[in-house]
Each structure stands twice: as structure tokens, then as C-alpha cells.
Amino acid sequence: MTICASGLSAQSTSATSANSRVAIVIGNQDYTSVGDLTNARKDAEDIADMLRDFDFQVFDGYDLTKREFEELIRTAVLNIPDSADVLFYYAGHGIQIGRRNYLLPVDAKFESVYDVPLATMTLDRVIDTLSARSAAHVAILDSCRDNPFQDLRLAADLDANLFETREGFDVFKTPLNSLIAYSTSPGAVASDGEIGHNSPYTAAVLETAQSSPFENIQQLFPVIRERVHTKTSGQQIPWESSTLVRPFYLAQQKVEVEPEALQDGAPQSLSLSYQFDKSVPLSQSLSQALGRDIVDVRVTETPDRGAVSASDTSLTYTPEITDTRAVDLPKTDFADTFAVEVVTADQTRQTVEVSLELGMNACDLEAGDALDLNGVGVFRLPNELDITNGLAACSQAVEDYPGNARFQYQLGRLQQAAGNVPSAFESFTSAVDGGHIRAKYALATLLETKRIDRAVTKTPFDPEKARALLEEATAEQDPYAMHRLGQQLLRNGETTEEKRRGFELLERSVELGHTYSMNELGLYFLLESSDHYIPERGLRYLRASELRQDIYGYDNLAYVSLNGLGGNPVDFDKAEAYFLAAAQGGHPTAPASIARMILRDQLKGRPRTEALAWYDTSLERGDAWGGANGAYIILDGQVPGKGPADAALRAAKAALLPNEEPAAQAQSQLDSLSRGDLDRALQLALNELGEDVTVDGQVGPATLTALENISAKFGVPVPYAAASDPKARLLLAARVYWAQNPVRFDLF
After folding, report:
1. Strand residue runs (E) in 372-468
2. Fewer CB near the last or first residue (10 Å), C or N of the chain?
3. What pLDDT band is residue 164 in, cutting at 50, 70 and 90?
4. Number of H helices, E strands in the chain
5. CA–CA dist 595, 597 (Å, integer)
6. Pairing mode of beta strands 162-166, 136-142
7. At a CB cut-off of 8 Å and minimum separation 6, what does 324 contact?
8. Helix (H) or strand (E) holding 97
9. Are strands 178-182 and 136-142 parallel, antiparallel or unpaired?
10. What is the rounded CA–CA span in Å between residue 615 and residue 647?
11. In angstroms, rounded to a whole number, what is the distance separating the alpha carbons of residues 629 and 616?
12. 8 A C-beta contact, residue 303 and residue 387
């Protein structure tokens, strides 16, 4: 018998469960550039099996490359519910560089002394990320087996000081309510064990945990230490560092209650349809479908694509979330099956096989954000947003689920992209109030950016509040907040310590896969004017961004080829190819770069009209140089069919954009033009804005009325000078243009 029920979950942005337990297990054994290990994979597999038996939700990976390591950590972080206990286990190569510890993916190699952040995972950063997302955290590290990179010196800090690689791990500061267990003492080497068996340390962990699963884990490690010491004849002594302030149990002891006499009911099949969310409560639908209240439920067959938690009468399904681009999503529905045994109020016990179908909300598909800790894993980059369809979908989602902070944030993304800054500000504020982490970054950006007209948008300028929001989101491990705060500190930090902190935050963001930070560090080390001009190091970051198909990485590498930065050869063809890739992806300034190449005859045989078209594309995207330079080549007589009024229109738009140098150039261009040219440009602008006025260079009542009407329509205040000053009138029309066609400053 099949019983069908349907429903939509109106959950908030995250799931909560006091009993949620998540494990991340990694076993790296078969390395490509260094010696293989003997038992790391078996060690990790056995730990993963044990933790599954203990009802942990396990995210495990074996022989992981750097990219796969990053992806597994990101996936696990996205799936950690609030108040969860988290366990991290790693078996594989690990090394110490300076006073810092690094885990080695299987493709780790150091072709450059600057490859450390791009070839390794920094242990304390992994620990900090997981501990910040959990109520209590335990890390078990069976990784100090030998040093595969002996006699190698590598750069691992901002100043590029070279440090020797060393075997073993150094003890570092343990985050609050965490325990870090090392397979051996600081700086020492751990045994890998006999082929086909577990290492002495993991064998002791398995034996001790399985014999005493309900003990507080802090009571287990002295036993583990004794067993390893005995097994290795005193050669290996495990070590722990703990700040745990409450017990951490590997298994949860269940109280056996003598059941009342039960009657067995016939097995049933149940089909449920819900909206995809981070957590889907099923108890009510299950009870309604059975027609009786449920007094007890337990899971008898686990699902394949998620986890089911059962407690007394509560049943909740948690799908496994992965970060996936919406444009790459093969299908938008999600199915899973599991079985439960329920006892109903009439003392009937029966097995229910559940077939669960989850459908994506259109708002998540249209505006989910990358690396969003409160998201459902589906995302669109800023240049991939479909503003019209997205606004409709997310407006409906907010109406249907007014308490869902995720939908509020995603609506804000679209409102900002559409130029509706006041509404975006309101949506981001609501999302922050609802606990959405990424919204703190978005709201901070609006509070401090110089790319919006605050007189028109009526949004406050509050850098102090913006900084506080960034600090909060950074503490909660949001990579976008880390990037923005790190960028500010590295660029503008007043002390060496602030700059070092900025570098550390950007590096943390890089390890979470954030390409913005790869580009920021790439440019920082490539700038000869920076305090740390290390071109080889900068290029390593830009190449990493390129591998992730990032438009900003393309644009930066175009400049490397165009100008021969960092000692690289000048290559105009390669530069154009990179600029084209960036421009096609929506990069705001890449089109203007192509225009410059045409004008400099770096792209032979290309007409000036094409250069103007590229400049116009950049201007439309908010690049002031596109307008100022477009005006220049028109005034210089380089573009057939274009005159001073066409130049004035472009200059007026550029003059209002936040880049000071091209804006000042545009102002000077306007000052050099005649009243007739400015008036003709005003009429061109009004036509562009949809007003039907004659373009004759004669400003009369019809032109002035049209300007007044269109200004009122978009809420742009009319300055007193506009009554008689042709330049003021033209700038007013340009301001209305930007109110009608707001700059996508999320793309800058």
C-alpha cells in the first residue's frame, strides 16, 4: 500500500538537533610525488565504519587531491547543523613548516617555494573552521609518519621567510571546547604499522572506542596512550591538547524501556514530497498518513543521500548538501528512501518504507550563493544571475515563507543586482536579524561602499557597523567576510600586525576555495609598489583562480600577458583571449581593456568603432574609464559618425562614477564643450531614458519638462543650477540614467 502526502517545509536557515553528530574522515595513502603510506586508507575506512555504527553522519574521502580535500571540507561545513558535535580524523602525510602544521593531499608537490597554501591544507585552519561550526569538536590525527620533503625550505608567511620542513607536528593553540589528539608527541614520528593492518595508534583508538563507546572521550585517551606505548615498546607516545568544557561521547547510550504488549501491523509504503531544505521534519506527515499519533519511532534502514534522526516521536531528514552551480545542475529534484519502525498510540508496531522526494525552491535555483553556510548548496555567481526570473521567484518565496532568512538574503542579492539598493538593504537587514551569516557580509558592503548614491538610495554610511558585521561573519567562518576584511587589513592596515592578520584571513579564504582571495593575493604580490613584491608567488595564486574558471583570474592574467608582469613575456594574443573570457563572463572593466589594445595597435587591423563599442560596454557596466576614454576618442575625431554631443553624453555618465581619475577627466571634457553640444547631449540622454524630445540642441519647455518628469519618476533631486546651467542639466540626466540602470557593484 502506498500512501501519498505532500507538504512544504518552512524551516529557517539551519537545522538544530541536540543529538546531531558529524564526522569528517580522510585517508590519504597513494601519493603522486612522494612515498606512499601503508595503512592510511584502511585506518580511515575502519574509523569511518566505526563512527557510522555509532550513528555519526560521516563525510569521508580517500586519496584526496588538494581540490577534493577543499571540497570535502566545504561539503562537511555546509552540512554541520547548529549545536552539533564534530569529529575530524585524518590519516596521511603531514609536515611542520616553521611552527605550523600542514596536511598533505595526494597531489602535493612544491614546484615553487611559494606553493604551500596551494598544495597543502593548514591544520589549524581546518580545526578552526570545524570548531567554529560545532558545539564541541574532536580532531584525531594519525599523520606524523615521516617527512616526505626532507631538506626542503618553503615560504609560509607574509614576508616569505623560508622555513625547513620537519617531521611530526607542533602543538598549537586549541580552540575552545575542542580536543586535538596527536598520534605521537610533538616533533616525533608515528609508526605506520604492518601492511594490511592498522597503525598502532588507530588500532588503539578502534579497540578502546569499541570497548568503551559510552565513556567520555577524554577518559579514553589515557588508555589509548598506554596501549600505543606498550605496542611500540615505548617508541611512540600519543599526545592530546584539550579545552573541552563538557563531555564528548562517541556513542549515545539508549535507555531500554520494557515495552508494553504490542500488536504488529502490516508494513506500509509511504511517499512524501517536500521542499528541499537543510532539514525536513517528517513526523507530522508520517502521523497524518498513518492516521494515528506516533509514540515511538526508530530508523531501521538508513538513507543513501542524507541522514535521518529519530528521537521519541520526532523524525527529521537531513539531505546531504554539496556546493553546485545552478547552471551545472542536471536536475532539480532529489529522491531518497529509508525505513522506520513506528509505534502508534494504539500500541501497534509496524514498519514503514519511506520514499522521499524533495524539490528545489525556484529562489534557491535562481539566487543561491556560493559557499553560503546557511544555503542549500546550489548557487549562482553574480554574473550568472537572471534578475527578472530571480526577482519573481524570490519575492514569491519570501511571501510564502516570511520567516526564512535564506530567502530574504537571496531576494536581497537580486534587488542589489537590479539596482534597487533600498530594498536590498531592507532584505539584507531582515536576513541578518534572522541569523543568516552571508547577509552580514552583504549588509556590511552596502554600509561602506562608495559605489552607491546615498542621496538617492537613502542608505546609511556606517563603516563602524560594517566592520562589526564583518568581524562577526568572519568568526562564523564565512569566506566572503574573511575576504573583505582581509583585503581591507592587508591593503590599509596601519600596523604590521594588522597586515599579517589580513594576509591570514585571505589565506583562510583561499583554503575554502574563494577565488576573490586568490586574485587579491595574486595582485598584491605582483605589484611592484607593494611591501611584498614577489611575482612568482603572485602568479601561483592567479593560476589557481584560473583553474576555477574565475573571470577575475582571467582578467588579471590578461594584464600579466599584456604588460609582461613578473618577468613574463608580453603576449598580446594571450592577453586578448583572457580579456575576452573575462568580458564574456560579465567582467566590468575587461571590455575597456580590449578597447585600449585596439587603440594601441596591439590588435592589428581593428577599427576605432569597435574600440568605442568595447568602451561603451564597460561604461554600461559602471567603468568610468569606458566613458572618459570613449569621449576622448570621439573628441579626437577617431570615430566616424560621432560628434561632441556623443562624447558629452559618455563623459556625463563617467563623471558620476566613483573612480576619481576618470571622473575628473570626464568633468574636464564637459567643461571644454559648448552649450549647444551639452544641450544636444541632454536631448540624446532623454531619448535614451525613454523621453520623446527632438534632438536639435535647443533646450526649450519640452526638454525641461521631460527632464523634470524623468527625474521625479526615479526620485532624483533636481539641483537649482539645472534651471539654467547646461552642464548641470546633463549631469542630472546622467544621474537619472544610473538610477534607471544601476551599476552592478557586486561585480567590481
Report:
1. 378-379
2. N
3. low
4. 28, 22
5. 5
6. unpaired
7. 377, 378, 379
8. strand 94-97
9. parallel
10. 12
11. 10
12. no
Q: What are phi and psi of 674, to 5 degrees?
A: -75, 165
Q: Residue 374 is placed in which grid cell?
A: 546557511
C-alpha atoms less than 13 angstroms from C-alpha of 747 in its C-beta half-sphere: 27
The three-state secondary structure class of 669 is helix
Query: Is-contact 689 716, C-beta < 8 A?
Result: no
**Letter for the amino acid at 602?**
Q
DSSP 719: P
Give me the sign of the Cα torsion angle 690, 696, 697, 699: negative
State the Cα torsion 432-507-585-583 to the nearest 10°: 120
Q: β-strands 378-379, 280-281: how paired? A: unpaired
How many angstroms separate the CA atoms of 510 and 311, rounded?
Answer: 39
Cell of 121: 591544507
Is residue 577 exposed (0-12), middle (13-18) or buried (19+ Cβ within 10 Å)?
middle
What is the C-alpha radius of gyration for the chain, rounded to an integer number of angstroms? 30
pLDDT digits (tens, 9 = 90+) for 713-733: 988 999 988 888 999 999 999
State the virtual CA torsion across 78, 81, 87, 92 in degrees, nearest 10.
-10
The residue type found at 14 is S
pLDDT at 146 over 70: no
d(CA 228, CA 574): 57
pTM of the shown model: 0.82
CA 21 to chain centroid, in Å, comes to 24
Q: How far apart are CA 414 and CA 744, in angstroms?
A: 10
Task: Look at residues 386, 448, 310 and name the one whose alpha carbon lies nearest to residue 745.
Answer: 448
Query: What whole-number distance in Å separates Cα of residue 350 and Cα of residue 296?
Result: 11
> How far is 589 from 586, CA to CA, in rounded Å?
9
Q: Which domains does the chain have, with CATH numbers?
A: 2-11+254-359 (no CATH), 21-242 (3.40.50.1460), 379-476 (1.25.40.10), 480-674 (1.25.40.10)
Is residue 175 within 8 Å of 137, Cβ to Cβ?
yes
Between the CA atoms of 40, 46, 51 and 52, what dihedral angle is there, to the nearest 10 degrees?
A: 120
Question: What's the grid cell of residue 180?
Answer: 586535538
Q: Could you tell me how far CA 41 lies from the centroid of its own chain?
A: 30
Span 182-202, pLDDT tens digits: 998 877 777 777 787 899 999
In tens, the pLDDT along 653-693 reads: 999 998 899 999 999 999 999 999 999 999 999 999 999 99
Location of C-alpha cell 540614467: 737
Residue 275: strand, helix, or coil: strand
Coil/strand/helix, residue 693? coil
Nearest to 514 by CA among 481, 492, 539: 481
- What's the maximum distance between 2 C-alpha atoms anywhere in the chain? 100
pLDDT exceeds 50 at position 641: yes
Nearest to 745 by CA among 379, 371, 383, 365: 383
Band the pLDDT of 452: cuts 50, 70, 90.
confident
Q: Among candidates 675, 613, 680, 607, which has minimal Cα distance to 643?
A: 680
Nearest Cα neighbor of 366 from 350, 344, 388 is 388
Give the CB-side neighbour count of residue 334, counting CA atoms within 13 A: 24
Contact (Cβ atoms closer than 8 angstroms) between residue 416 and residue 442: yes
Q: Which region holds residue 187: left if phi is over 0, alpha if psi is between -120 and 50, else beta?
A: left
Q: Which residues contact 72 (CB under 8 A, 6 or more apart)?
A: 24, 26, 59, 61, 64
For residue 468, which phi and psi values (nearest 5 degrees)? Answer: -65, -40
Q: How far apart are CA 409 and CA 431, in angstroms?
A: 5
- What is the pLDDT confidence band of residue 260, given thresholds at 50, 70 and 90? low
pLDDT in tens, 77-129: 999 988 899 999 999 998 888 778 899 999 998 888 888 888 899 999 999 99
